[in-house]
Q: What sequence folds into this?
């Protein structure tokens, strides 16, 4: 710590390269005549060089960054779904109008249709063989099951991002990637169906 | 066209309904925010989760955002507040000590097959000691030091990010550097670093 108290802050600023340009030249002149401040600047500079080097070693791998965008959209989608559910719940709690049963019936029908659609889209070609898979199945069969689940997850992600971003180009490229991944399975037909509806501007397949 | 105008234009485009503008903002800042949080929380999974939360909050608040400060400053402010919440929660419910071997730096060193393993270990220990010294700073000193030193924010931007006067930022920064000098001096004098 320099004995020349007046310049201690300046020594730190100088070492941190934060000294205002107008103060730089006079301080450099002061350094020539003040051993305390010169030592302090050398010491602070060395400390900062060490901490810089140690922090530079922390590197964020690319793979971690790839997932950020998708997870942000998933989080947003989950919140939107939650909001929709809260609204439906609030509606039922409030009781509705004297003709409320019409609305209740309509909401129930939509809910049933949505659940049916999710079940159909989620597992459209799941065969009985897949359903019967157990711990005793061969490793190949289990790997195939995981592959099918991965393709299904990718499709769900495509649909979520499509819903949130209205980004036809990205959705189309995602569907093409999914189709490549699903080569040789019935999922290619699902991808084709969504691609066709996307190209024709029809949103019913979403 | 400078970066400030670019970011503001993207925000304006997003506010006008172009969702892709937010993708571009994420692409620009996800690495910076992730590194900032990784330095702060020193845990890979938590840094990833908080980064997601930062952009989630930004997306929801961007509709009403006004360009009073730079977009990046605003984003760092969200990240900084979430990091403070994280540290508070961690202090209330300490589960386990932070382990530096969890973070990617450990893997990075191990991939350099041509260097001397003993030297690698020394380097790793040296890095750990220095980062531990930074962790010993007070929360405010650490936040000011990291934003100014590693994120390249101007003192004015650090002040806006942390809701402090610029003079206070400078005081915290001076104290941080002096404290680091005190903490690291014994190692330095013994030629351990």
A:
């Amino acid at each position: 710590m320099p004995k020349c108290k007046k310049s201690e802050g300046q020594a730190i600023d100088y070492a941190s390269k934060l000294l205002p340009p107008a103060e730089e030249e006079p301080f450099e002149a002061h350094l020539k005549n003040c051993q305390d401040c010169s030592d302090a600047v050398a010491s602070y500079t060395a400390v900062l060089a060490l901490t810089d080097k140690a922090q530079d070693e922390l590197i964020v791998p690319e793979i971690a960054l790839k997932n950020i965008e998708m997870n942000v959209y998933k989080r947003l989608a989950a919140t939107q779904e939650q909001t929709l559910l809260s609204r439906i719940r609030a509606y039922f709690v409030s009781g509705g109008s004297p003709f409320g049963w019409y609305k209740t019936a309509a909401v129930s029908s939509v809910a049933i249709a949505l659940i049916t659609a999710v079940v159909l889209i989620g597992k459209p070609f799941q065969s009985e063989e897949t359903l019967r898979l157990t711990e005793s199945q061969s490793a190949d069969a289990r790997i195939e099951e995981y592959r099918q689940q991965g393709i299904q997850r990718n499709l769900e992600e495509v649909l979520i991002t499509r819903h949130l971003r209205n980004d036809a180009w990205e959705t189309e490229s995602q569907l093409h990637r999914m189709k490549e991944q699903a080569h040789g399975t019935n999922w290619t037909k699902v991808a084709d169906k969504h691609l066709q509806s996307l190209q024709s501007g029809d949103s019913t397949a979403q | 066209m400078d970066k400030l105008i670019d970011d503001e234009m993207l925000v304006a485009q997003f506010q006008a309904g172009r969702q892709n503008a937010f993708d571009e903002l994420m692409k620009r800042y996800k690495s910076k925010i992730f590194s900032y949080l990784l330095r702060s929380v020193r845990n890979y999974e938590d840094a990833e989760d908080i980064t997601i939360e930062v952009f989630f909050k930004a997306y929801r608040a961007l509709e009403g955002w006004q360009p009073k400060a730079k977009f990046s400053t605003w984003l760092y402010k969200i990240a900084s507040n979430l990091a403070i919440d994280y540290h508070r929660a961690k202090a209330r419910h300490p589960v386990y000590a932070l382990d530096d071997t969890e973070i990617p730096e450990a893997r990075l060193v191990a991939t350099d097959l041509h260097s001397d393993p003993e030297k690698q270990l020394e380097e790793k220990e040296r890095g750990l000691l220095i980062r531990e010294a930074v962790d010993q700073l007070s929360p405010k000193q650490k936040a000011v030091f990291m934003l100014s030193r590693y994120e390249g924010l101007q003192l004015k931007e650090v002040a806006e990010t942390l809701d402090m006067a610029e003079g206070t930022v400078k005081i915290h920064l001076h104290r941080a550097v002096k404290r680091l000098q005190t903490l690291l001096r014994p190692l330095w004098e013994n030629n351990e670093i």
